[in-house]
Amino acid sequence: MIDPRLIREEPDRVRAAQAKRGLSDEVVDRAISADETRRAAIAEYERLRAEQKSLGKQIPQAAPEEKAALLEQTKELAARVKAAESAQSEAEDLWRSTLMEIPNVAADEAPAGGEDDYRVIETIGTAPQFDFEPRDHVELGQMLGAIDLERGAKVSGSRFYFLTGIGAQLELALVMMAMDQARNAGFTQMIAPALVKPRAMEGTGFLGQAADDVYKIEDQDLYLVGTSEVPLAAYHSDEILDASSLPLRYAAFSSCFRKEAGSHGKDTRGIFRVHWFDKVEMFVYTTVEESYAEHLRLLAWEKEFLDKLELHYRVIDVAAGDLGTSAQRKYDCEAWIASQGRFRELTSTSNCTDFQTRRLDTRGRFADGSIGPVATLNGTLCSINRPIIALLETHQQADGSVKVPKALQPYLGGLDLIKPPT
RNA sequence: GGAGGCGUCGCCUAGUCCGGUCUAUGGCGCCCGCCUGCUAAGCGGGUUGAGGGUCAAACCUCUCGCGGGUUCAAAUCCCGCCGCCUCCGCCA
């Protein structure tokens, strides 16, 4: 949720932000009028309620002959208070739900426009050159006994898979490498629940435009998370954090589930776009002022991880219209996927400023004793599947074997070359 | 899943049976001040959060796990839910 004061004090800034994302600004006018209605309703209710309270106080001391008249009066007033109260809460609900429709105000620096309007910030390394016909990860995964797609489909349906043998080892190695890196950088390691209550989903902004992508548990008020950003953002909900403890840096491992509705026919081959995968995610609580610098640090940690995997990748500044509800700015790291001849998203880091914390009621108590908003940021450290794809395709050899990047070798028991099982 | 107990302003706690003066008691911690060469002790004051209102204030409203109900009036009575604890059952 954006700062309600923005609507009242700088509505034009919000209108401009909507336009930058390619959204209509009529919601701004609705929010302004909902705010006015709400404040009028509050004033009316509070006026009646104050009257009711003061009359109520007179009743115990009232002389018996006055009592009946007083009771009559207060009884009538009670009905009006009740009506005013429900009018007030109705106005409050409308105001809140209108505000909730408004996504975070994109950073001035974020490019305007949609998915294709990103700006390339930098490109690292060069595309691998092969003196043979390179295989894609599906073929390599099969040759190496690492990925079993047929049985994944048999057991769970399309966009499911088993990681087998060296594939399973690769996941564990990547997870450990990511977790070690995070811990060394001062993150607290976490294993987070993959099922959450509506509050957590709503609070992180995933029940808005992304709702179609979210699995809901039948007959229960629980959702499967698409990222551990969700449980981590809700982790400190309803809390006031001591600002001197900031930044709070968490690195969580969890499974992630996505319906991938609306992407039928897209990336159907292999394990690039799947309904379930595991991920190590960085999540930070910090001050709004520090969040911009922290965002660059998260990006640096993502790059460090990709560097260790010796991948060719680029960093893009995602355009406003493609930011998602909560983000103020987002950088994606896209690795070169040889079989596709293009860069594809492997990791992503977002600065959500105080958008999520406002919804989830997480605040900070600062050195001067004041209480105010704090910011959240998230960043993928390792999304497992896609790094495996990039790894296999980038480091493949003519015979189908795959070189293991130096940094990953210790996590595979010193293995430097993955060979097809004999 | 069954039975019982509990949930009060950072922590502990009084109040709940018997509704109104609860504007929620006291202690700890914390903050400010006084005092004392320093420190400690002592003394005095402050200390939930949100919203409305205002130039700022004053002031007002809400907040005793959450939601509803009864009532002129609810921490207190009634109903539902959630969480925690104990025991039993089941289970990885």
UniProtKB/TrEMBL annotation:
Main subcellular location of this protein, as a coarse class: cytoplasm
Sequence segments annotated as region (Disordered): 1-21
EC number(s) on file: 6.1.1.11
Biased composition (Basic and acidic residues): 1-15
Enzyme type, top EC level: ligase
Feature type site, description Important for serine binding: T380
Gene Ontology CC entries for this record: cytoplasm
Positions bound to L-serine: T227, S228, E229, R258, E281, N378, T380
CDD domains with a match to the protein in the record: SerRS_core (cd00770)
GO molecular-function term, one example from the UniProt record: ATP binding
Boundaries of every Aminoacyl-transfer RNA synthetases class-II family profile domain copy: 136-405
Keyword Aminoacyl-tRNA synthetase: yes
Function per UniProt: Catalyzes the attachment of serine to tRNA(Ser). Is also able to aminoacylate tRNA(Sec) with serine, to form the misacylated tRNA L-seryl-tRNA(Sec), which will be further converted into selenocysteinyl-tRNA(Sec).
Subunit (UniProt): Homodimer. The tRNA molecule binds across the dimer.
HAMAP family: Ser_tRNA_synth_type1
PANTHER family given in the database record: SERYL-TRNA SYNTHETASE (PTHR11778)
NCBIfam families for the chain: serS
Name of the molecule in the record: Serine--tRNA ligase
Organism name: Nocardioides agariphilus
Gene behind this protein: serS
